[in-house]
Structures are given as C-alpha cells and as structure tokens.
Design goal:
This protein is mainly beta and about 140 residues long. It has one domain. Helices cover about 10% and strands about 45% of the residues. It has one helix and 13 strands, in the order E-E-E-E-E-E-E-E-E-E-E-E-E-H. Strands 1, 2, 3, 4, 5, 6, 7, 8, 9, 10, 11, 12 and 13 form a 13-stranded parallel beta sheet that branches. The chain starts with 15 loop residues before the first strand and ends in an 11-residue tail after the last helix.
C-alpha cells in the first residue's frame, strides 16, 4: 500500500505561513515546511524553512533545508542545505552540510560544515568505501 501524504501542501508547497504584516513571538514547530514573510521572534523547528524578502526574524532555527531571502538574526542549524539569496541579511552562526551565499547578500557570522548530520552521514559513507585504485605509470 502506498504511503499516504500527511499534508496537503496546495500549490505553494508550504505547510505553514507567517504572512507579511504579521508579528509572531514564541516557539513554533512544524511537521513540514514553514514560510515567514512577517516579523518573527523566538525559536523555529521545521523540515524546510523559507524566509521571504520582507521577513525580519530573530530566532534560533532548526530546519533540514533553509532558503533565506530576508533578514535573519540568530543561529541556524540546517544539516542538509542553506541558500542565502542576494536580498538576504544574515547575522549569526550557521551549521550545515552545504551552503550557497549569493554575491550581493550580507552575512556576518561563522559557518560550520563539520557538525551537521548530513556531513557526518556523508563522511561515514566515504570512510566505508575503499579508495579508488590509482592508475599505473604504464597506462
């Protein structure tokens, strides 16, 4: 039997939204994706995290994948991937397995690409595989 999809994401692909003009203060946990276009203060835990260009976030964030287009002040743990778009301003520390930072974005903080679970899983996989043989000088 096929696994039933738990959430109807609609056409946007987003499960929960803090819309532009909204202010939210507190802790939020979402099984699925979260998009913030308004003001958010607190902590965030979700699978996929999207920060719209109009967003201003002050938070501790834990999300598998993150796309930052607005302002974020705080720390981000995103083991799979972080994308910081050219309109973003990120002040804080990032822990991730992969990162893309657009040329015109603002970033002030540190990036740790060695502690994320995705990195640990990849490192374990690489250590478990035998090294490729080196070609001989005669070839």
């Amino acid at each position: 039997m096929a696994k039933e999809q738990k959430y109807d994401r609609g056409s946007s692909g987003v499960h929960s939204i803090v819309g532009e003009g909204s202010v939210f203060e507190g802790n939020i946990a979402v099984e699925g994706s979260l998009r913030v276009d308004g003001v958010f203060k607190g902590s965030i835990k979700c699978d996929a995290f999207y920060v719209g260009r109009t967003a201003e976030i002050t938070a501790e964030i834990d999300a598998s994948r993150s796309v930052i287009g607005g302002k974020v002040y705080g720390n981000l743990k995103s083991p799979m991937e972080v994308i910081i778009e050219e309109t973003a301003e990120f002040i804080g520390d990032i822990e991730t397995g992969q990162i893309t930072i657009a040329e015109k974005s603002i970033f002030n903080g540190s990036i740790d690409m060695g502690k994320g679970e995705a990195y640990k899983n990849r490192l374990s996989a690489v250590k478990g595989k035998p090294a490729a043989p080196k070609p001989s000088a005669a070839e």
